[in-house]
Amino acid sequence: MKRRVAGFALAAAVLAADQASKSWAIGLLDTSDAPRIELTPFLALTMSWNRGVAYTMLHSDSDLGRYALVALALVASLVLGVLLWRAKSGLSVAAFGCLIGGALGNALDRLTHGAVADFLYFHTPFWAGPLANYVFNFADVAIFAGAVLLIYESLTTKAPVAS
């Protein structure tokens, strides 16, 4: 039971951190004259409103599309919540907590702003591909971390041998 509570607490913490970071970024960067703030040679702060999902796929400016994406995130969060409840390992619990918190953070953006607030701009000198330019937020980082944890666990956990 403690593990389950910890997983849902992690989801709540991810959601809170995501919303706090977005509130800060919107206040700092969501103006027409806000400059791009370079943090490192490959990471900057800049405001971008994403009306789709990763890499603006499933882009939708309509309310129907926006609410469909919110509904999809809520259904996914419910399914992930059931998986978290049934999870046997702490790694799975942490992964599902990250995925739920991230999905709910981006869904809340769609409901309150009509789009997802992205502000962390990762850029490289590569001219093409996913590493060339990517604007994301804390929820996206949590979703990525959750997916990596699940992949890691699937690769390192020995499956029971059938007899």
Automatic annotation (TrEMBL):
InterPro entries per UniProt: Peptidase_A8
Keywords: Aspartyl protease, Cell membrane, Hydrolase, Membrane, Protease, Transmembrane, Transmembrane helix
Pathway the protein acts in: Protein modification; lipoprotein biosynthesis (signal peptide cleavage)
CC per GO annotation: plasma membrane
GO biological process: proteolysis
UniProt membrane topology term: Multi-pass membrane protein
EC number per UniProt: 3.4.23.36
Signal peptide positions (record): none
Keyword Cytoplasm: no
Function: This protein specifically catalyzes the removal of signal peptides from prolipoproteins.
Family: Belongs to the peptidase A8 family.
Protein name: Lipoprotein signal peptidase
Gene name as annotated: lspA
